[in-house]
Amino acid sequence: MPGDTSFFVINGDTTCFLTDSQGKRVFIGENEASKSVITGEQPKPGPDDGAFKGSVFVVGLILIIFGGRVLLARVLKAYRVKLSKGAYDSNFGWYYKELSIYNTYFRSLPGPQQEKFVQRTVSFMFNKRFTYEGIEADDRMPLLISAAAVQITFGLNKYHLDYFKDIFVYREDYQHGLYNQPFMGHVSADGIHLSWNNFMKGYENYSDAENVGIHEMAHALTYDNFMSGELGGDAGFKERFADFSRIARPLFNQMRQGKVGLLNSYAATNYHEFWAVAVETFFEKPVEMKAELGELYAAMCWLLNQDPLQPNKILNNALLTSRKAFR
Ligand SMILES: [Zn+2]
Predict the structure, then answer these.
(1) How much distance in Å is there from the Cα of 151 to the middle of ligand 1?
(2) pLDDT confidence of residue 80
């Protein structure tokens, strides 16, 4: 979408995992000093004795800190789940009404799917911190923005886009960094940024394939999957992305060479924009996309495990192994 950007790399269309410190293992081996203590002998302080004690202290400290963080994360998660379930029970009617008014995708779902959609949306909303820049907060904002993320991830197991803790909402186009052009939205390591007026316009006209909410969530989805490390993101999405690219890359290359077609010309900017524009078109012009870019449409259905033209949307329920909406 003109006036947006994203900062990440996908190597060869597949994955670009960052290495992280999690998964490091610390082994504490036996040594003569510890055996001596067990047998009652006075250990003889050796040249390494101080270093050994220091190592034990450091390792112990790391374990305490790491264990404490894990425990804290579990407590916070349980609290968030409790809050989101409570909000869902108390406000379901209001969520349902607002989503019915403003979200065309939600309106097209059958009843049971709508229930699942609201659950996922509330859960997503309670997993993010929303910050409002130059605009008064409104309960509708986090709800509808969360719904845009849930829409594109509706066929995936993992939908929280956990890489991002923060979502920033602006009144309208905003300046970012040293860019001259104002932004409608962007995604970077610090969070997902959206201008509210443009977000609403995107859903007001749901047939022009211009939807900044869907566009930025598409960036956020690949960012989350390819920058969160091996355990982050949705395993199925990561596996299937290479299949998608086998179809999408040649089409992107054709656009770079000047071929004009259904996709907005902004898709030719780079492959990340091609991806985000293709997702916008997939949801807002599915009939045209299926007719004109049938292979790309099918590849997108396969990748996202959903077909916007089907009433139930989800193509393969067996891929949704995790049934819990509140997580
Ligand atoms: Zn973009």
Answers:
(1) 18
(2) 87
pLDDT in tens, 149-162: 999 999 999 999 99
CA of 114 from ligand 1 middle (Å) equals 28
Between vectors from CA 184 to CA 14 and to CA 144, what angle results, nearest 5°?
80
Question: Which among 224, 4, 8 is positioned nearest to 128, based on CA atoms?
Answer: 224
Residues 265-316: pLDDT tens digits? 999 999 999 999 999 999 999 999 999 999 999 999 999 999 999 999 999 9
Are 254 and 192 spatial neighbours (Cβ–Cβ below 8 Å)? no
What's the CA gap between 36 and 75, in Å, rounded? 41
Distance 6 CA to ligand 1 centre (A): 6
The pair of structure tokens assigned to 59 is 């390792």
User: CA-CA distance, 214 to 276, in Å (whole number)?
Assistant: 8
pLDDT, one tens digit per residue, over 254-263 is 999 999 999 9
Reduced 3-state DSSP string for 204-244 = HCCCCCCCHHHHHHHHHHHHHHHHCCCCCCCHHHHHHHHHH
Tell me how far the alpha carbon of residue 146 lies from the centroid of ligand 1, in angstroms: 18
A 10 A CB-CB count for 323 gives 8
The pTM (predicted TM-score) of the whole model is 0.80
**Distance between CA 50 and CA 86 in Å, rounded?**
53
Ligand 1 geometric centre to CA of 231 (Å): 25
Residue 38 Cα to ligand 1 middle (Å):
64
Do 172 and 199 form a contact (C-beta atoms < 8 A)?
no
Is-contact 147 114, C-beta < 8 A? no
Helix (H) or strand (E) run with residue 37 in it:
helix 32-38
